[in-house]
Amino acid sequence: MYVNKTEKGYSKMGLSRCRWCYEKNVKKVFTTEKLPTYIWPSKKEDPLYQEGELYLCETCGHLQLQDMTDEFISSLYENYVFIQDIPTIHERRIKFLQTHIGDSIRKDLKSLDVGGGVNSIFFQLPQSKLETTIVDFNVCDKSKEMVDHFIEGDFVQYPFKNKKFDLIFSYHCAEHLNNPRPALEKISELLEEDGFLIIEVPDIEAVVEKRPYYSVFHEHINCFHFEFFHYAFTSLGLEYIASERENFCMHFIFKKSSSKPVLPAPPVKKARQIVESYKENIQKTTQKINQLLGPYKNKKIGLYGAGGSTNLFIANYPILNELCSVCFDRDTLKHGLAIGKNRMEILPPNKIDEYSLDYLLFVYKDIFEIMKTKTKTKCIDLSTCF
Ligand SMILES: [Zn+2]
């Protein structure tokens, strides 16, 4: 079924079959508020807003969003994507790799980064002797210069012929795939015997607990949870080696082994528990935010932060759209753009005091702690609601 909207179109609603096991045993478990389909700040006066639908597969336990067309998916990334490069995250990843497969990342082995066209893990391994290949729809110039080989195009369609890899990396790619199974099967096929897959995706269980407003949105078509990931890769014949769960992400190492690993039961029950927590936490935090901000309805209020997660925060708690009239962010690329359904303008932080606001709201505690000493405006920390 299509909801009729021209331009790049709304996504379809409904899900015909599970993206992992292809069974039709999928159940809608939640429908979100209307969310911006392009989550980042933009110039658009009338950006596309649509509900996200969360489905649970009763056969395999995969949590996933509604059906989407390729055209719709490309519209999610049509403008600039604001991604922060956080050094502590790189350090954590490298430490984890060194602990578990330290020898492998130092040797002269064949390695592939699936989806690393912009922020490849290879940038963090400058001393390694790895033979490096990146495959992605777009590979940035800096990456092209750095690697031994690059492939621009569809990984699933690309004919690798008899080429195999000792190490395959994939960071924050699988959750975006409309058809994750062929890609993950291909990864498994391309691994040498005793080769390693190193893969990181968002940890839906952690997100649901602490950032329920960032759990379901159109870019993250697959809402992977730990037990499902373990189950899915085991079913592809890979052996679980290690994992770490930090900073709302799950970082895994699997190994291609000659012996067939024991397949765990499909984690359907776990998926149901995650959905229940999600529903509970959305409801609970909505009540808290409404209670906290209810008395400020006639005040002049601004919001600090204008990233994708803040935009989803505003969409999930509509009182923010009613109350806030302006937004502030350090990132100069965002200035002059807008977020929220009410198209709040994004200004630099040095404009805060000129604006004579009654209150300035913060989504994140660490930023609140820094900024409250730097402005005369009264600051409110919304992270207390989580
Ligand atoms: Zn399934």
Structural notes for this entry:
The protein is 28% helix and 25% strand. It is built from ten helices and 16 strands. The longest helix is centred in the C-terminal third of the chain and has 26 residues, at 268-293. Among the domains are: 87-263, Rossmann fold, CATH 3.40.50; 295-385, Rossmann fold, CATH 3.40.50. Helix 5 (204-210) packs parallel to helix 7 (268-293). The model is unreliable at 1-7 (pLDDT under 50). It has 386 residues and is α/β, with parallel strands linked by helices. It is globular and about 65 Å long. The protein starts with 25 loop residues before the first strand and ends in a 5-residue tail after the last strand. The strands form three sheets. A seven-stranded mixed sheet has the order 6-5-4-7-8-10-9, sandwiched between helices. Strands 13-14-12-11-15-16 form a six-stranded mixed sheet. The chain binds zinc ion. Zinc ion is lined by residues 18, 20-21, 23, 57, 59-60, 62.
Task: Itemize the secondary structure elements and their pairings.
Blueprint: E1 26-36, E2 49-57, E3 63-65, H1 70-76, H2 87-106, E4 110-114, E5 131-136, H3 141-146, E6 149-152, E7 165-171, H4 180-190, E8 191-202, H5 204-210, H6 226-235, E9 238-246, E10 249-256, H7 268-293, E11 301-304, H8 308-316, H9 319-323, E12 324-328, E13 338-339, E14 344-347, E15 359-362, H10 365-371, E16 378-381
Parallel strand pairs: 4-5, 4-7, 5-6, 7-8, 11-12, 11-15, 12-14, 15-16
Antiparallel strand pairs: 1-2, 2-3, 8-10, 9-10, 13-14
Helix pairs in contact: 5-7
The structure holds zinc ion (ZN).
